[in-house]
Specification:
single chain; 270 residues; alpha+beta; 2,3-Dihydroxybiphenyl 1,2-Dioxygenase, domain 1; 9-stranded mixed β-sheet; 4-stranded mixed β-sheet; 6 helices
Length: 270
Amino acid sequence: MTHVRGLIPYLTVHDGGAAIAFHTSVFGARELARYTEGSGRVGHAELSFGGHVVHLADEYPEYGMRSPRSVGSVVGGISLTVDDADAVVAAAEKAGSKVLKAVQDEFHGDRTGRIQDPFGHVWSIRTPRARVSDAQNRALWNEMSPGNTAVTYEPAVEVGYYTFGVPDVERGRRFYAAVFGWELSPAQRNGDAAYAHVDNVRLPLGLTNDTKDASPHLYYRVADIEDAIARVRANGGSAEPVWESKSGRGASCRDDQGVAFSLWEPAPGF
């Protein structure tokens, strides 16, 4: 059985240089790589959207690669999560995109709009606004129209965040920015505690000034923290009371052998 190690969307456009400029200026993407032929054709480019990578290239008709502009249609799209869907859709329209669906609040808890960019690709721009459970989503979908059905599957729990400690967070920000290219937010302070978030990595992480344990502290992303805590305790582990923050709800836990970890139920948008 094949073990899938990753999936990266690949866009074909009629003007690679202009497409890169559009995505970086409107969507805030970061250009990672660009390979340009002597003719000026972009043979391959890589863009990071908050740590999630998209590839693109100019048309290569000789290999059957044509853009939506050339074939006159599009058969797919990309969903992009942002902080402010209204602002991004407005910026996209100003930059030459066609608004296919005005931004509005949806039953699944997101505020969403849809645009077709100047290169023919369709983007769903979304900002999570409310926490809606899978059960609520299914019920609302089924009620929308006769014959609607919905099935959702519980995903395997994965690491959603991690932190590691350094003696001085400000020094850590400078060191890891220079060595790894990390883009870190300004250090946040709460009394003696300090923390800085890394903005441009696929698996989010942060630096803290807690050096009691040099190993990374893992936060496992869960959909329902009370249910996860119940499973921890039922299987011999322990969990402290739930804490609240702007990023969601969390709980410090230990497994049945005393190993520490945390649970994290993200707030909408995280």
